[in-house]
Each structure stands twice: as structure tokens, then as C-alpha cells.
Amino acid sequence: MADLELKTKISMRHLSYLTLIVLISCQGKSNKNYLDFFSNLNLSIDTVIIDPGDEIIFLKHQLLNADIGKDGKYFYNFNSDDHTLEKINLDELRLEEKLPFEREGPNGTGPSGAMSVHNENQITMTGYGQTALFSMDGKKLMTLNFEDFFIGKKATKGGERLKLDRVLDTNANRLYVIIHSYIDESYTLGILHLDTFKVSRLMLESFGKLSNYNIIFNSGGIRIFESPPVSLEKVGTKVILSNLITNTLMWYDTEMDSLFMKSYNSQLTANHKENEFEKEYETPEEFEVAKRKLRQEINFMPPIWEEQGACFYRFSYQEIENIGGEKIRSKVYLTALDKDLNILGETLVPQLTKKPGRHFAKDGEIWIYENINDEMGFVRLKMEKK
Length: 386
Fold this sequence. Notes:
Layout (H helix, E strand, L loop, with lengths): L2 E9 L8 E8 L8 H4 L1 E9 L16 E3 L5 E6 L4 E6 L4 E7 L13 E6 L2 E5 L3 E6 L4 E6 L14 E10 L4 E8 L5 E7 L4 E6 L11 E5 L2 E5 L3 E6 L2 E6 L5 E5 L4 E5 L17 E2 L2 H13 L2 E2 L3 E3 L4 E10 L8 E9 L5 E6 L10 E4 L2 E8 L2 E11 L1
Parallel strand pairs: 16-22
Antiparallel strand pairs: 1-2, 1-21, 3-30, 4-5, 5-6, 6-7, 8-9, 9-10, 10-11, 12-13, 13-14, 14-15, 16-17, 18-19, 19-20, 20-21, 23-25, 24-25, 25-26, 26-27, 28-29, 29-30
């Protein structure tokens, strides 16, 4: 069973019965060589810097609240200091304008949360209690308060929290969220139906071992909770769910109304984190050592869609032990997947020597954020046929 693919489908139409179909295919020996795909490509990098003009581009949080526009021309970065949306022209490599937003009032964003581009004319702003839709000129078009999804009680049960990665689907009148239960350490995909205020839940199997990698610094009344990142992103009809600890992907197909899961057998890396760690640490030194050891195992980043090649790319990385005060370095790998999330190929990317920052695909290249002397820069990974 050298090549094992697990694919699970759960139909939303039979939620009351939780119909479950598992398809497993095993072969004595895999004829698929995932290294062939990249063997015909030359990988190279260059670096560009965004011209800020007379402004200072907001870089405090490593582009935590930033997103590329749907046409790939503009990159939007939310500045929580002056409460503006920085509109960056990627074709011309310059800050084109700053779009003002209000903190308070009828059009207020409230405390700045996660920003994402909804379409070319709208963005969403998300906090722990709500998600709101805004036009690019700062007008609030819709507010979704999560407590409204149940009469007299919250949309989540006790001990649950909605993760900040959320997808608003205005065509289907739905909001997709990841719900984390602190009681049983489970993760579910929550589908909030905006017309009926009902919530459907689907268990996320590939998230089952995430709790093994939650660690806590607990000393002197101070508690710091560290958990592996999770991601939720909509591409076409797929709402794709991923997490840091495994290469397994899940996706909800909005047309088929079904949830799928697929695991992969990498030829270059482990398929998931393997070691387990103590949950709580009483000294900062112990806590830092545990975090470093977690990073030294394989880490999987969310897949991104590349329109020109009609495929997904997904980075993974493994931090190299820092000896003698050297800069932290990582081995960085890149996996390509087709539109149906079947693996096409994988490769080590020797040109990249640290964890990729915020990144996206544009014109057949992967743009990776890099702070260059306090300016917004991007390392561009190019893949050209030999």
C-alpha cells in the first residue's frame, strides 16, 4: 500500500443521517512520480519594492489584514493606524490611493479585525462577534451578528469560538466559518444560512489531531495560548479547508452540497507532524523551545490558486535548528495541485531559505511579501519551462 488516497464525502442533503461514503484505493506500487512536474521548469526569483509615494505603507503586522483583488491587479492592505485601505497597483508597483473607513457610527468597522476582498467593489471586515460587508468607499452594506443565528442564545455553544478566517457567499446567502470547541477540542465547518438564521455543521476529520499541538504558557497568572493556524478560502465552487499540521485537504463543494477529504503521500516530506508535546509550560524558555521544536517538524501553508496555470500551489517548510546564533533558516517546499486538488508535483525550492510570508499568485508567478528596509517588497518566484 505504497500509495494510499483517502477521500471522504459527506452530503449536506442528508445531514440528519450524516451519510458517510469512504473511498480508498491502494496500489502495490505507485507509478506516479511527483518530482517530474517541476523537472521541466526553471525556478528563479527576483525582488520588487512598492513605491509608497508620499505615504508610509502599513507593515506592522506582516500584512495580516491584506488580500489580493480578484483580477490580480490590485493588492489591498488595511491600515489599522489611520483606518484606511491601502490600494496597491501591482502592475505599476506603487501605492495608488488610500481609501478611508470609519471606526465608529453607522458605517463603522469597530475594532479592526480580519479584512478580505469579497469582489472588486467590496470587502469584508471580521471580528469575533460579527462579519460586515463594505463597499470600497467605506459604506457598510451588511452586518452579520453571530448571536442572531439562534433566538435567545448564541450561535455557538459554550466553550466554542469562531476562527477569524470566514467566507461570505452572497450568491448562496451563506457564511462559511470554522468553529473550534475548547471542550472536546473538535473543529467543524459551520454553514450559516443568512435567509433562515440556521446553522449547519460538518465535522472536520483532518483537523482531529490539531489539539495535540496546542501549547500554553501558564505562569504567574499569565496564560498565552499557541495553536496551529487553520485556513478557509473559497475558489470557484470549492471552500477549501487546511491546517498547519497535515497535507490532507478538505473542501466543501457548494454546487454538490458535499464535503470531501483527500490525503497525499509526499515523496519529499512527512505527510504530517508526528511528535507530541507537553501542553503547558511554566517558563518562557521552555515555551520558546517547544514552539521551535514544533516549527522544526513539517509545516503546511494554505493552497493558493494560480489562474494562468489553472492550478493550486502550496508551500510547506521545515525550520532548521539554529546553531551558534545563525539566522533562522528553513527548507521550503512547493507542491502543485490541479483544479480538483490532485497532486501534480512537488519540489524543494532552494532559492527560498525561510518561511514564506504572506503570498499570492499573479501572472504565473508567486509573490511573497518581504519587508525590505521597512518598505513593502515582494520576492517573486518564477516558474519557466526549460
